[in-house]
């Protein structure tokens, strides 16, 4: 049974691989891609999403979503993803092939017009939160929301906060308090899937159009990781959301209470994960606690080979 997916993203090198993974998998029916500002401005993340999907022959509606967070000022991440937001691969000029609906409207239409849609979000949650506010009926129709974001332990944008949540903590609060089943794939897990030179070389041997894009993007992604964090390679965060759908045994989940810190103090944007159930509060999210790393790279390889 194929899973109906509405993907919301901010490409972004790892978002690009999430699109690749979702585009041709027999277990996934990718219904649409909405784009949000995050790794770069909305104009750049939208262009990047269109480029990746068009280059790979993924023919779905692509809609431009929110340019700014709900409350706080906008943050972008040029240090890791570059000035274009997807430095490293020269795509042809595909012109303006965007679906004219707003990204928030695409999410609403996709959920309301299809059965049991899973929203997968690999960027800030602004579009998803705005969809919930604009059309609360989607909460009764959608299956679940799977996000790359947050962390059981420390952040990557402040000691407390992970980038996607930090970009729009109020949006994350709307999503986590919506009552919908949320699956949170956080840094505590994605920091285990480092796209090392060994992984890049493995994918380069596939020698098709998708591997060519993957290799060139990952080389720049890792160079920026080296410059920014002094590490040899970076975590390939976002595809873990899609991979968890492709193989339901990939990730070990624990249901627990998760609250977003929107207090504007030093922990602003933290995902407070009550792993030991201290508060006895409602368990509103499944939190990823471990990932089968070898199986993850097998899924990535299979995804690249499918083009
Ligand atoms: O913290 C990692 C997340 O922030 C990933 O989704 C990456 O693409 C950036 O958006
Ligand atoms: Ca992202």
The shape, in one word, is globular
Pattern of helices and strands: EHEHEHHEHHEHHEHHHHEEEEH
What proportion of the residues form beta strands (DSSP E)? 15-25%
What is the C-alpha radius of gyration, as a whole number of Å?
18 Å
Distance between the termini: 21 Å
- Assembly state of the chains shown: single chain
For the largest sheet, list the strands in their spatial order.
Answer: 3-2-1-4-5-6-10-7
Small molecules (ligands, ions, cofactors) in the structure:
alpha-D-ribofuranose, calcium ion
**Low-pLDDT sequence parts:** none
| Main sheet specs | 8 strands, mixed
Number of strands: 10
Helix coverage percent: 25-40%
SS-based structural class? alpha/beta
Continuous helix count: 13
- The overall pLDDT average reads 97
Write the layout of secondary structure elements.
Layout: E1 3-9, H1 13-23, E2 28-35, H2 42-55, E3 62-64, H3 78-81, H4 103-112, E4 117-121, H5 126-134, H6 138-141, E5 144-148, H7 163-167, H8 169-176, E6 182-185, H9 187-190, H10 197-204, H11 209-229, H12 239-246, E7 251-256, E8 258-260, E9 271-273, E10 285-291, H13 293-305
Parallel strand pairs: 1-2, 1-4, 2-3, 4-5, 5-6, 6-10
Antiparallel strand pairs: 7-10, 8-9
Helix pairs in contact: 1-2, 1-12, 1-13, 4-5, 5-8, 10-11
The chain binds alpha-D-ribofuranose (RIB) and calcium ion.
